[in-house]
Design brief:
Blueprint (H helix, E strand, L loop, with lengths): L1 H5 L3 H8 L5 H28 L3 H9 L10 H16 L2 H11 L1 H17 L2 H16 L1 H20 L3 H25 L5 H16 L1 H4 L15 H32 L3 H31 L4 E3 L5 H12 L7 E3 L2 H59 L4 H10 L5 H11 L1
Antiparallel strand pairs: 1-2
Helix pairs in contact: 3-6, 7-8, 8-11, 8-13, 9-10, 9-14, 10-14, 11-16, 13-16, 13-17, 13-18, 14-15, 14-16
Length: 419
């Protein structure tokens, strides 16, 4: 081999020592590029919808003579994707398109859970599961109200006709009021996440009775006389019963830790923060709509675009006036007073209710959930003693270890978490 290398030319030796790029490096670069595209696209969408017309701004700076092309940007984008797909015949292009389009869903339901899993924190896991259940249980309301909010917002941004703007402003007021009422009532309602947890554990016990019981055809037979197939069924059913008992008691212990963690206070703060952001965005649209109906409603020292009304709405919510935008008519002043009242409601009433009533109710509901899960585990422990004629779950676990049950390691891990 050394003789063969010595006979090679300089170019052949150089190629021999070159390290080709690994497939892992290429995959990393591809995924990195996809992430950058997805993040850039959604930053553009947010800026475009809620701050200012960024593409028109850039085109007017670089090539103002081609600003008219932006009127056809949707059709241009679709055409580019179609041509690229037809030319390459690569399914990855479609996957990239779907990934970028649904990137927020990927973040919520894949990336965040994966990060939480790597943290190996049960507190974060329970908090994330509860948040996901609450979101999914109210997804119908969220979708309807989101549509009722985004459509008027888009109409306010796109039209200048008072016949369109007044109904849109009225619709945004209604959505805002309904949102506040719904959030206030939700403080006194039972937690949807806790109800789901209760139904899951009680449902598994009720509907999984057959999986936990000894089959009728071998019930009266001694374990020593069972055939290999019968013993396998007996072991599987005992394993299912013990596993359910361990899961119930393990979940109860972890929920007790969750109860004392104070994460419920964080969820309350997040709720107030989201409602505050929603209020700022809603009133920015309302003030901007009033300005488009009649610029005389405000005294402006800067051009009246949507961003300046975001700035005005935020400052108005924190009881701070700005020189750039000043309401000078009864209509605009009334809108400003209503926003200030919403801020007062958020700070004085809503926050105090969240930190007192909601926290107390949350603790009581969580305590009740822990008690019910523990009762499910204790019930299963008694069932195992009566059904399998053992002294307790400890003896049942010993039998499963002797029979080399497939999930015995998981059962031992859960048992350590219970102690």
């Amino acid at each position: 081999m050394p003789d063969e290398i010595s006979k090679m030319g300089d170019e052949e030796k150089r190629q021999l020592h070159e390290i080709p790029p690994t497939r892992g490096s290429f995959t990393f670069l591809k995924n990195f590029a996809r992430e950058i595209l997805a993040i850039t696209f959604w930053i553009y969408v947010v800026v475009k919808l809620f701050i200012f017309d960024i593409d028109l701004f850039l085109v007017n700076i670089v090539i103002p003579q081609y600003a008219w092309v932006l009127d056809f940007k949707f059709f241009i984008l679709i055409s580019i994707i179609t041509i690229a797909w037809a030319a390459t015949k690569n399914k990855n292009l479609v996957l990239w398109f779907l990934y970028i389009t649904f990137y927020p869903i990927v973040i919520l339901f894949w990336r965040i859970p994966y990060i939480l899993f790597k943290q190996k924190s049960w507190l974060l896991a329970f908090a994330s599961i509860n948040a996901a259940i609450s979101f999914l249980s109210g997804i119908k309301y969220t979708f309807i109200m989101g549509t009722c909010f985004l459509v008027p917002m888009a109409l306010i941004y796109s039209f200048s006709d008072a016949k369109v703007l007044w109904p849109s402003i009225s619709a945004m007021f209604i959505v805002l009021i309904v949102t506040y009422i719904h959030r206030f009532i939700s403080v006194f309602r039972p937690s949807a996440a806790f109800e789901v947890h209760k139904n899951i554990f009680s449902g598994v016990r009720k509907h999984g009775a057959k999986a936990f019981s000894i089959d009728d055809d071998i019930r009266a037979l001694p374990v020593q006389s069972l055939t290999e197939k019968q013993l396998e069924r007996w072991t599987t059913n005992l394993q299912s019963a013990v596993l359910f008992n361990r899961v119930c008691l393990f979940a109860a212990r972890k929920l007790e830790e969750f109860q004392t963690s104070g994460i419920n206070v964080v969820s309350s703060v997040v709720m107030v923060l989201l409602l505050t952001i929603f209020t700022v965005v809603a009133f920015a649209g309302i003030h901007y709509g009033l300005y488009k109906i009649d610029a005389g409603f405000f005294r402006m020292s800067v051009p009246g675009d949507l961003f300046i009304f975001f700035y005005y709405s935020f400052n108005n919510l924190v009881f701070n006036s700005i020189e750039e935008v000043v309401p000078i008519s009864p209509v605009s002043q009334s809108a400003a007073m209503i926003e200030s009242f919403c801020a007062l409601f958020l700070v004085v009433i809503f926050t105090s209710v969240l930190l007192s009533v909601r926290s107390q109710r949350y603790g009581e509901e969580l305590k009740g959930l822990i008690g019910q899960i523990e009762r499910e585990g204790k019930w299963m422990e008694g069932f195992i003693r009566d059904e399998y004629k053992v002294k307790g779950v400890g003896e049942a676990i010993e039998q499963l270890e002797r029979l080399k049950a497939g999930l015995i390691k998981l059962i031992y891990q859960l048992s350590k978490g219970i102690e």
